[in-house]
Amino acid sequence: TTALWLLDTYAYSTQARVLQVSKDESQEKGTWEVVLDATVFHPQGGGQPADRGLLIADACKWPVRAVRASKAGKVVHQVEHTGTAPPFAVGQELRCEVDAHFRIEAARLHSGGHLIDVAMLASGCTLRPTKGYHFSPGAYVEYAGKLSSEDRETLLPKLQAQMDEIGR
């Protein structure tokens, strides 16, 4: 699958061709897995949620429930479809439409996590980042180690100054 979202964060739609379609037996009824030759859908990973949106063909719209990257380099789109026959045929052309508002929010939270880490380093903090969670609400970055109460009191103003500087 060609990962078009890597080339342009602001690409929200594209035409694609169906490479594989199969019923997802591990999920609830009505879930199908679709692999395309190219996609603008960002899969979940790196602490960031998967894009939301639609796959559109023949004037029909299928909501995308989840998107994941396989180890084989394929991007798997899980779509809602209650029919017994597959929603798409291999080789069929369709349109991918990403929810732009959701994508921008996810990208903003992901970038914000990296900015916090840059500000932590620039503030002289030596704690090692261990986890980034960039979902709304509740985005955060975790660090390994502990700060003394004195270091905590001095870090916050340094961190705020660094964030203000980065934001200029």
From TrEMBL:
Domain of life according to the entry: Eukaryota
Annotated protein name in UniProt: Alanyl-tRNA synthetase class IIc N-terminal domain-containing protein
An example molecular function term from Gene Ontology annotations: alanine-tRNA ligase activity
GO terms under biological process: alanyl-tRNA aminoacylation
Stored InterPro entries: Ala-tRNA-synth_IIc_N, Alanyl-tRNA_Editing_Enzymes, Transl_B-barrel_sf
PANTHER family assigned to the protein according to its UniProt record, in alphabetical order: ALANYL-TRNA EDITING PROTEIN, THREONYL AND ALANYL TRNA SYNTHETASE SECOND ADDITIONAL DOMAIN-CONTAINING PROTEIN
Signal sequence segment: none
Record domain Alanyl-tRNA synthetase class IIc N-terminal: where: 19-100
Pfam families in UniProt: tRNA-synt_2c
